[in-house]
From TrEMBL:
It comes from the Bacteria. InterPro entries: DNA_brk_join_enz, Integrase-like_cat_sf, Integrase_catalytic. This is Site-specific integrase. It comes from Streptomyces yaanensis. Keywords: DNA recombination. The keyword Methyltransferase does not apply. It holds the Pfam family Phage_integrase. The keyword Acetylation does not apply. Gene3D superfamilies: Intergrase catalytic core (1.10.443.10).
């Protein structure tokens, strides 16, 4: 969904309304020197936001909460109920380093190219931008106050993203090269 790793690690169940499908971003868990966890409010005032959950993550979060309940039951007294979403099987919250390592293991297991989590954030925001999400909504989704900065920083247009522009030129020219083999 294009969240910052510290926002993912800081996400608590009390900030997610699974009935309405809304995720509130109010808390982060980041690392200092890749050693010490620092928990704090959102990075900026614009970073404190409520996001409607897309259907797939909404359903996945419902299933994940049920899985955590089963893990809590199985672990008994060994489980620590911290209230965080991203936890290990004993309920302890992951930090951004552990999240990154987990994501890399998952990428390898699935045969995916390994990308930095921040690059995945950029890809998500680029996807929204090239699919017509208005700049002001894109900035709000990213937790940024400035739409121009958001597009400059996060949106990276690739050739495949420009197919709509090529199609517009085809329409302008009457559907593309003539059947007779005429060159453009």
């Amino acid at each position: 969904m294009g969240l910052r790793p510290a926002e993912v690690c800081g996400q608590r169940w009390l900030d997610i309304d699974l009935q309405l499908g809304v995720l509130e971003m109010t808390n982060t868990r980041t690392m200092i020197g890749n050693v010490k966890v620092l928990e704090k409010d959102a990075k900026t005032a614009a970073g404190e936001r409520a996001l409607p959950l897309p259907q797939w993550p909404w359903e996945a979060l419902k299933k994940f909460k049920a899985q955590q309940a089963r893990e809590k039951l199985a672990a008994g007294e060994g489980y620590t109920d911290t209230g965080y979403v991203v936890v290990n099987e004993l309920g302890l919250p992951l930090n951004t380093r552990q999240l990154r390592e987990h994501a890399y293991r998952l990428m390898r297991r699935l045969g995916l190219r390994q990308v930095r989590l921040y690059d995945a954030r950029h890809s998500c925001l680029t996807y929204l931008a090239v699919n017509g999400v208005p700049d002001v909504v894109l900035a709000a989704w990213a937790g940024r106050a400035n739409a121009n900065f958001t597009k400059r920083k996060y949106v990276h247009v690739a050739p495949e993203d420009m197919r709509a522009a090529a199609a517009a030129w085809d329409a302008f020219h009457g559907g593309g090269p003539k059947a007779s083999g005429e060159k453009m």
